[in-house]
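Sanity check. The docking grid for glucose-6-phosphate depends on where the pocket ends up, so I'm generating a full predicted complex first rather than guessing from homology. Inputs follow.
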Amino acid sequence: MTANLTTQPAWKKLNSHYEAIKATHLRDLFADDPKRGETFSLDAVGLYLDYSKNRITDETLSLLIELAESAGLKDRIEAMMTGQKINTTEDRAVLHTALRAPSGANIEFEGRNVVPDVHAVLDKMAAFCEAITSGSWTGHTGQPIRNIVNVGIGGSDLGPVMAYQALRHYSNRNLTLRFVSNVDGTDFAEATRDLDPAETLFIIASKTFTTQETMTNAHTARTWLLDGLGADPSAVAKHFVALSTNAQQVAEFGINTDNMFGFWDWVGGRYSMDSAIGLSTMLAIGPEQFHQMLAGFHEMDQHYRTAPLDKNLPVLMGLLTVWYTDFFGSQTTAVLPYDQYLSRFPAYLQQLTMESNGKSVTLDGDRVDYDTSPIYWGEPGTNGQHSFYQLIHQGTHLIPCDFIAFGKSLNPIGDHHDKLSANVFAQGEALAMGKTREEVLAEGTSEELAPHRVFEGNRPSNTLLIESLTPAVLGKLVALYEHSVFTQGVIWQVNPFDQWGVELGKVLAKKIVPELESTDQPLAHDSSTNRLIQRYRSLKA
Ligand code: G6Q
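Predicted complex below; grid placement will be based on this.
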């Protein structure tokens, strides 16, 4: 069976509407409506979204909203936020919004209010942070902890890395934070080469506590520590803590479960940076600011749940993504933060967006006959301008861009910030308006060079303009994209919360490890894989 989305009335209307407006230029839309910049903007929960530079009209928006309504978006949001098992392929609830609910809230899952459990863990994390920063928690030799190494991968790494970079301005500079994720030994070696084991704490972050990469790095960390501290196994207790849902595996590894910070089955890996997985973030910025971040998340959750669909930031952004992906055939979306602190934000979003909606069957198992998640990518501005922006301006692909800009710099040095901000506004303007042949010729460019210097324009972008990057704002931004992804998933009828696509490679890798360790084990792969393994064996020898 194929999915029924494209046969729905709202979809069909969008199709005809697309045919009618696909040639309309943003230049004309702005010329026809001097108030467009105001009409197509939304100021909510401290974020200002200008979405006027999108190839949309009032009609586009009402049809997209109709599509969301016919998909039952409001009910799906309620189902998610009230703990229904909407992750049907894994039979799980999806309650990351409970991780940032205020302590008095009541969110029930299987008859139990989970909010007190969430806050008990947050309190335990805060007490631990206090013990580390005050120096009352010491290492095995009595020295205070100065280095924190988070060992995790995927959802147990990308959020913590991104948040640490993003909130560095607010961080305790007495602590050195490092992140080890890759099973490539280089990652561990470089992260630890200048650290003193006596002052180093490893946070083993793994929901399952069985992930090959993380367990390999965790064992290497233990060996490194014991080699450095004289092989007394009791040292592990003072230098290792675990973030996990799997107490049994944590104990088997040798970490006292008193030093384990738990979370729950209903927290997906890529939705977990605000759970115990955020311990490194809390250590860096302190419990109070971590709570401000959670409050920011919660504000966006409330907005998503209660604001009308046409005044709802994540809904608008999600629907615009559907509009470009399925009607304009856009394959990618660029996220371009004009803030160096957000340098890892696009990488973080790659997992959030693509692992969530990179699916080709619906919840019912039917094959889709439309595109799902675009490819997300990006780099901070202005650096990207000196590299790949050429393709966004004059290439053959239509690439919707999300610009993220701030009114105030956290490092207000000279006129840097005005120059930075001038660039972000200029890029949005140039992409939308372009430069016509007439304008190019009027500047004195020769006929011969003119085609090279014409900018077609009509390239869409959103601009988020925010006062400044605070912990609360980071929470809001992450929740904005989480819910935009959910909105897209609801329209596309896919399950944004499983990731079966990563399984096959993992299973095969497990099978190949012994084949690489052996020199003569017979190989039964395809001829390409067999030859690669044989060549690897001889290179290794
Ligand atoms: C995220 C994915 C995946 C996961 C990692 C780490 O949504 O499920 O990226 O986070 O595979 O898993 P563990 O935390 O169990 O080690």
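Relevant for the grid: The radius of gyration is 25 Å.
Also worth noting: The mean pLDDT is 97.
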